[in-house]
């Protein structure tokens, strides 16, 4: 079974930066849309940002202007550069991928990572 593997989470002070990475555990030819979700304790898993194979991006309002999603199509590696981090960004961040051209609703996402913890202290 294909898995996505995230890395780059950790503890950072408010105003700091982190860069998350995501890569498949083995080659996947069917990946098109990719994205990042996050889940804070007691809350649902929310969309953070998505990116198509062609590079079209979409961001949730809370992270616009602070986070940047990017990808390398050659190996389906995806990144999330997070700047000006706030305590409310604290969550487990999940990598997601789909064979569809545009990321589908959360319930229809085909591939998920195991999650990486991001903690922002005030």
SSE string:
EEEEEEEEEEE
Count of helical regions: 0
Structure classification: mainly beta
Q: Given the C-alpha coordinates, what overall shape results? A: globular
Question: What's the story with the biggest beta sheet?
Answer: 7 strands, mixed
What keyword list fits this structure?
122 residues, mainly beta, 7-stranded mixed beta sheet, 4-stranded antiparallel beta sheet, 11 strands, globular
Characterization of the model:
With 122 residues, the protein is an all-beta fold. It contains no helices and eleven strands. The strands form two sheets. Strands 2, 4, 5, 6, 9, 10 and 11 form a seven-stranded mixed β-sheet that branches. β5 and β6 (57-59) form a beta hairpin. The chain starts with a strand and ends with a strand. The model has no long low-confidence stretch (mean pLDDT 94).
Short recap of the structure:
By secondary structure, the chain is an all-beta fold. The chain is globular. It has strands at about 5, 10-15, 20-25, 35-40, 45-50, 55-60, 65-70, 75-80, 90-100, 110, 115-120.
């Amino acid at each position: 079974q294909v898995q996505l593997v995230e890395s780059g989470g950790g503890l950072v002070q408010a105003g700091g930066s982190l860069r998350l990475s995501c890569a498949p555990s083995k080659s996947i030819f069917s990946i098109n849309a990719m994205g990042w979700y996050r889940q804070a304790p007691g809350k649902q898993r929310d969309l953070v940002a998505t990116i198509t194979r062609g590079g079209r991006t979409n961001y949730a309002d809370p992270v616009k202007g602070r986070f940047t999603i990017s990808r390398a199509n050659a190996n389906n590696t995806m990144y999330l550069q997070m700047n000006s981090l706030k305590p409310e960004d604290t969550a487990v961040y999940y990598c997601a991928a789909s064979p569809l051209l545009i990321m589908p609703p959360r319930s229809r996402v085909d591939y998920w990572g195991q999650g990486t913890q991001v903690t922002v202290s005030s």
